[in-house]
Amino acid sequence: MRAFVEIRKVMTQQHYLSQQFQDLKKELEIRLGEQDTQIIDIYNALEELMDEKEERKNWENRKKLGYK
């Protein structure tokens, strides 16, 4: 789990790594073997973690109402 968190941190900080990640995922989807589908599942889990971080960041930067 710690490895996934570290990978997510690096990928959100470095946009070009995110692009390489997407390219690698597309290449693996083309080959579609049993092991490749398992790897794709791992990539999908990483993407969900990255999306979670973006949602949290957007929530923190929202316009707040009420008492400050």
In short:
The termini are far apart. The protein has 68 residues and is mainly alpha-helical. The chain has 3 helices and no strands.
Task: Write up what this structure looks like.
It contains 3 helices and no strands. The protein has 68 residues and is mostly helical. The protein has a domain at 2-48. Helix 1 (2-13) crosses helix 2. The longest helix is centred in the C-terminal third of the chain and has 27 residues, at 34-60. The chain is elongated and about 55 Å long. The model has no long low-confidence stretch (mean pLDDT 74).
* SSE order, one letter for each helix or strand: HHH
The global form is: elongated
Mean pLDDT: 74
Overall helicity: over 70%
Parts with pLDDT < 50 across at least 5 consecutive residues: none
Beta-strand percent range: under 5%
Radius of gyration: 16 Å
Question: Structural class of the secondary elements?
Answer: mainly alpha
User: Got a strand count?
Assistant: 0
The number of distinct helices, counting runs of at least 4 residues, comes to 3
**Main β sheet profile:** none
List the helices and strands and how they pair.
Elements: H1 2-13, H2 15-31, H3 34-60
Helix pairs in contact: 1-2, 1-3, 2-3
Annotation keywords:
elongated; mainly alpha; 68 residues
